[in-house]
Amino acid sequence: MPEITIEDRGPVRWLTLNRPEVMNAITSEMLDLLNTELKKADDDRDVRVLVITGAGRGFCTGLDLKQAAAGEGIGGSGLANAGARHYSTREICTVTLQRMDKPVIAAINGPAAGYGLDLSLGCDIRIMSDAAVLMPGFAKMGVIPESGGTWYLPRLLGWAKACEVSMLGENLSAEQSEGYGLVNKAVPHEEFEAVVEDWANRIAANAPLAIQEMKRLFRHGLTQDFESHSHHVLMSVLNLFKSEDFKEGVQSFVTRRKPEFKGK
Fold first, then answer.
1. What span, in angstroms and rounded, lies between the C-alpha atoms of 50 and 100?
2. 61 and 116 in one domain?
């Protein structure tokens, strides 16, 4: 079986980490494949929303420790050789994720630890099953959130809460994660996939050019002052006014019908 499976459900593409026997622990080969599939989804005009989830009981329990113990892969003995080589000579998967313009939903179906936690933090929206748990136990393993967590956590939680979560390293239930603002919604497991599909389909039904431009502007706004950002927003709005999607949005509103956006 492929270590990542791809399924298109209309305009929503599902990428599933597919090593259920090891709770979808990540290998360097999987990272290369995931990086490639993220780019493909971002470039595919037929894909409006991407969902990342895990097969079986886990979302992703981080880097494959058996591979690391054997001196192989990203966490091998390894780090000065295999690990550093990965980051210096290949594109970093979580950087590709952060650059994407298509909206990405993390469907956290089970435990998310280490790299798996960082991967979910890099997604735009996180929906979490009540059977799942977030495991920020980096300090207990003698490492740090190496794939985006040190950047995302203070922005999502604020400085003090990010320190609490990462330095205590204690597991967080779905209810706690929602309360902290780490996930958008905690869902009973039996309703989980239906809720993810509902959110993804509702986003996909909206104007894709506007959705993608929102995401670009959110990203740029993290490093811009307000005045510069406002000029950037104005130019984007003027371009969107010229789109067929904007005309469709106006016409559908006036005629009180459901819009059919084409991404043009």
1. 10
2. yes
Residues 47, 163, single domain; the answer is yes
Among residues 256, 126, 246, 148, the alpha carbon closest in space to that of 196 is found at 126
53-92 pLDDT, tens digit per residue, is 999 999 999 987 666 655 555 555 444 444 444 444 456 8
- Return the closest-CA partner of residue 216 out of 232, 203, 204, 200: 232
Backbone angles phi, psi at 94, to 5 degrees: -70, -25
- DSSP letters, 160-204, are HHHHHHHHH---EEHHHHHHHTSSSEEE-GGGHHHHHHHHHHHHH
Report residue 231 as tokens: 């000029």
Distance CA 62, CA 48 (A): 27
Q: Final residue of a domain: which of 163, 186, 204?
A: 204
Angle, alpha carbons 134-140-142 (nearest 5°): 120
Spatial contact of 123 and 183, defined as CB atoms under 8 Å apart: no
Residues of the chain with pLDDT under 50: 77-89
